[in-house]
Design goal:
heterodimer, A: mainly beta, seven-stranded mixed β-sheet, four-stranded antiparallel β-sheet, B: globular
């Protein structure tokens, strides 16, 4: 049963520390999305990639967040330096885009981040 | 972007059908209607999507009004495992070039409570 995996599942860190979250998309999927969920804002899109190229990162705070896809099997989301307001659940999702078809997104279990 | 309106919460009894409404009066002709759900402590999960015709799959049915200004997700026989937040999302048709497929814009959704 193919699924998106995310590591770590939980992370507690202190303000100012660097945080790296990793995502392994479903094999063969060419689109990867990063979302963040908080009680106040709900689920928000941060960034997404297609064929490893960033297509949109307008939802991401540019000064401290960065997203990359070093290869087709790994996507990373990095926060440096982290702040308490970054505390949230971060979800990765992958999909398989084909022209003129609707892409279904498959979500990972999320990384629950707490910044003290 | 066209918006959707859903009730904050709904309650139903186990093994009874559930009809979850969604209003989208400003939907454009090329917007698809997607439904996702999020079970407690999990990532969102795709349920169903459609454009104009009613759709059925193993999880649910989607009934789309003739004018497309509203739709209803139907769970034919709810179980306790269907207790979740259900999101109705409009998604533009993908562009012919294959690019520009946006991420999902989640609203607050409907919190479905199932009573045993």
């Amino acid at each position: 049963d193919a699924r998106v995996t995310q590591t770590p599942r939980h992370k507690v860190t202190e303000m100012g520390q660097e945080v790296t979250m990793r995502c392994q998309p479903i094999l063969g999927h060419n689109t990867v999305f990063w979302y963040r969920q908080t009680m106040m804002q709900g689920l928000e899109l941060l960034a997404y990639f297609r064929n490893r190229a960033p297509l949109d990162d307008s939802g991401m705070p540019k000064d401290r967040f960065s997203a990359e896809m070093p290869d087709a099997t790994l996507a990373t989301l990095k926060i440096q330096p982290s702040e308490p307001r970054d505390s949230a659940v971060y979800f990765c999702a992958s999909g398989s885009a084909r022209a003129r078809t609707q892409e279904t997104q498959y979500f990972g279990p999320g990384t629950r981040l707490l910044v003290l | 972007d066209a918006k959707t309106t859903q009730p904050n919460s709904m309650e139903s009894n186990e093994e009874e059908p559930v009809h979850l409404p969604c209003n989208h009066s400003t939907i454009s002709g090329t917007d698809y209607i997607h439904w996702y759900r999020q079970l407690p402590s999990q990532g969102p999960e795709y349920v169903i999507h459609g454009l104009t015709s009613n759709v059925n799959n193993r999880m649910a049915s989607l009934a789309i009004a003739e004018d497309r200004k509203s739709s209803t997700l139907i769970l034919h026989r709810a179980t306790l495992r269907d207790a979740a937040v259900y999101y109705c999302i409009l998604k533009p048709q993908e562009y012919p070039s294959g690019g520009g497929a946006d991420g999902l814009t989640f609203g607050k959704g409907t919190h479905l409570i199932i009573q045993p």
